[in-house]
Amino acid sequence: MGRLAGKVAVVFGGARGIGLATVKEFLAEGATVFAADIREPAEEIPGYSVVDATDEEQVGAFVDGVIAEAGRIDVLFNNVGIHLGKSLVDTTLAEFDNIFALNVRAAFLGTRAVLPHMIERKAGSIVTTSSNGGVMGRPGDPVYNATKHALVGLTKSIAVAHAHQGIRANTVNPGAIDTDMLRSTLNSPEEFETKQHQLVASTPAARVGEAWEVAKAVVFLASDESRFINGVVLPIDGAKAAGAMPGNRYSLDFELGVR
Ligand SMILES: NC(=O)c1ccc[n+]([C@@H]2O[C@H](COP(=O)([O-])OP(=O)(O)OC[C@H]3O[C@@H](n4cnc5c(N)ncnc54)[C@H](O)[C@@H]3O)[C@@H](O)[C@H]2O)c1
């Protein structure tokens, strides 16, 4: 039997990358999945809807629709996010507002829409995609980092507030994961192969991760296997957040790790 057999899962940001990989793992583990994203999915997904996760009405209507069809929501995966690789002084106010309005607002709206149903049933697991940048400072993307730290605060607070009602809230905190988002930080997707050393220079595992490696962790946090794990921040990052490496390891002449 699948580890999510009988569970109803909602995934925001499920069209590609980490979200799509998680939708596939959820389905493989027996969940009924309702995935939503602002774009059409990279592959056909059953139960898929186009939803702008920053739009209060659209999120509300989508969640109401899931409840009407499935009767309950056991798992919520808040995965919507965009990146902004700019220094603080180069970030405009519009860019600041835009990334908070997306990365933080989407998780707020999704959670606020689903939580009352979980409270009513006294059960539910909420998993939110934060980042390495949600647990450590990084020089290249301070405002993105701030949004990802905000998601950690939101998650821990939900855990503390609602644990006694059978609700769990945890984050996954990926390091560099090979997705369209990561590749879009380069001038062209082809640059990926040549720029890997730069991408993982600060990763002890000396490699990027795969979307399915994050999805497996989300399945664990969504499932009853993790039923007493609540309010945690789980790095999936080849030890990047664990500490500093020997100084010479930050030079670019190291051997890439095994993928
Ligand atoms: N790839 C990485 O290296 C990495 C590292 C750390 C954290 N993350 C986080 O993981 C999550 C997934 O990222 P990914 O790498 O799979 O990138 P991605 O761009 O493939 O996935 C993000 C998804 O969010 C969707 N989205 C954007 N705006 C939306 C909106 N308004 N409404 C609904 N959906 C919307 C996108 O269409 C996309 O499908 C993000 O939150 C990202 O910040 C990624």
Q: Could you explain how this protein is built, in words?
A:
With 259 residues, this protein is of the alpha/beta class. It has a single domain (8-179, 209-246), classed as NAD(P)-binding Rossmann-like Domain (Rossmann fold), CATH 3.40.50. It has helices spanning 17-28, 56-70, 93-121, 142-162, 180-184, 191-200, 211-222; strands at 8-12, 32-37, 48-50, 75-78, 124-129, 167-174, 233-236. A 7-stranded parallel β-sheet has the order 3-2-1-4-5-6-7, sandwiched between helices. The longest helix has 29 residues, at 93-121. The protein is globular, with a radius of gyration of 18 Å. It starts with 7 loop residues before the first strand and ends in a 23-residue tail after the last strand. 42% of the residues are buried. The mean pLDDT is 96. Bound molecules: nicotinamide-adenine-dinucleotide (NAD). The site of nicotinamide-adenine-dinucleotide has 26 residues, from helix 1 and helix 5.
